[in-house]
Structures are given as C-alpha cells and as structure tokens.
Amino acid sequence: xxxxxxxxxxxxxxxxxxxxxxxxxxxxxxxxxxxxxxxxxxxxxxxxxxxxxxxxxxxxxxxxxxxxxxxxxxxxxxxxxxxxxxxxxxxxxxxxxxxxxxxxxxxxxxxxxxxxxxxxxxxxxxxxxxxxxxxxxxxxxxxxxxxxxxxxxxxxxxxxxxxxxxxxxxxxxxxxxxxxxxxxxxxxxxxxxxxxxxxxxxxxxxxxxxxxxxxxxxxxxxxxxxxxxxxxxxxxxxxxxxxxxxxxxxxxxxxxxxxxxxxxxx
Length: 266
What we know:
Layout: E1 9-12, H1 18-30, E2 33-36, H2 41-50, E3 57-60, H3 71-81, E4 87-90, H4 105-132, E5 136-141, H5 154-174, E6 179-186, E7 189-190, H6 193-196, H7 210-213, E8 216-217, H8 218-230, E9 235-238, H9 244-251, H10 253-260
Helix pairs in contact: 1-8, 3-4, 4-5, 9-10
C-alpha cells in the first residue's frame, strides 16, 4: 500500500470476515490506526490477534448495523479516543436468497435496516467530525446488484441501489468540505456473504454459492479497493469478468434482460 495511508485513522465495518477483514490487515500492515467493527466480537478479537506485530494498530468496536438507535452515541465514544476519522469504510451488510412472492415485508425491512439505514446512520454520526477536522474519505459498499435487479435479491438490490442515491448526494453537498466519497461495487468475491444471506423465513442460506466460490479472493478485492481509494474514484468496481454486466446493462439493456434471466442466481 502507498505511504498516503500510513498513520491514517480508518474505521471499517464488516471487519470480522471477507473483504472487511482483508482491508483491516492491509491498513494495519501499512501503519494505519484501524477501528474494526462488526456484530461478531469473537471473530473481531481473532482479527485483532492476527494483527499482532504489524506496523499499525487496531481497536475493536463491536456493534450491530441493524440496531441504529445507539450508533451516534457509540461513534461519539470512539471519537473521544481518536482525534479524528480519516476514512470510514462501510463494508458490513447482508444478502438475500428469496423470491419476491416468498419474502415477507418484515424481511425487506430487516435487510434495508442493515444495509441502508445502518450504513447511513454511522456515516451521519461520523460526518460532522470529519468536516470539523478538515475532511475525510467515506466509502459505502454497494454491489453489481446495486446497479440492476437480479433474481432472489429484491430487497438486497433495493437496499444497495438506495446507497447510490444517498452517497452521490453526500458528495454533491460536501465536496466543498473536502469530503471524498467512493461507492464500492463488488461482483463475485469469495466470501461468506452467500452463507449468511437470509432466506424467506429469515434463516441463513447456509452454503457457499457456486458463483461466490468461483469469485476472486477477498485479498484481491481489497487490493482493488485500495487502488481505487488511492485514486479517489467515485465508483470502484471489484471483481472479475462478471463486471462486464455493468456495461451491458448500461449500453445494451435489452441484451442484459435476456442474459440476466438465464443466469443461475444461486
């Protein structure tokens, strides 16, 4: 990683596994002071242990993105310990594996609460401190399904598409305050996201989907993200050949709908 990330204070959600965990190691190894968050305290402690001997430091701050009521107070306590937040990387979230006709409205709300409201609640809590300290960089994790619909992902896709509207507006309103904004658009990355995806009854999907299993490693995804952040890219595609679907959807929508309807969604 370039020296521009050395001694930065970086807050990463979803830090106990997958892309978030890989980013933690990359930033700590570079000399950053990392605040690592997820709802799994045990795994966060394991991640912190794995950072032993690295150049930077790590502080774990467990919390649940689905419980937004205490986020502002929690962020204030973090800022009492840290003099600033240079980067906020909103990586945490949850996916879905259920048809629209099978998905009860409470499940739509739960997925939206975690992916959208949890993400913007933390962003709103940190933003005033960033502005006061002279600026910062905020990233949010969307998905290629955040750019188009996809079978079995109705609530997931909707929550991710909502993030684009929010964070584009954030950039327009606060670029004058030296706030940089990036939206990450992962395709297939080999993580546990499909394992933890929610089915129609709210239980975990419980298996690694074929598409995820064939995805790029989380470490490679982290490198792509770091490169995009370093270049201040507003959108950062992450993945392999499947990212071609983004261009097909944009420039050849009729072809997209023919292809997407034939893709095995699992």
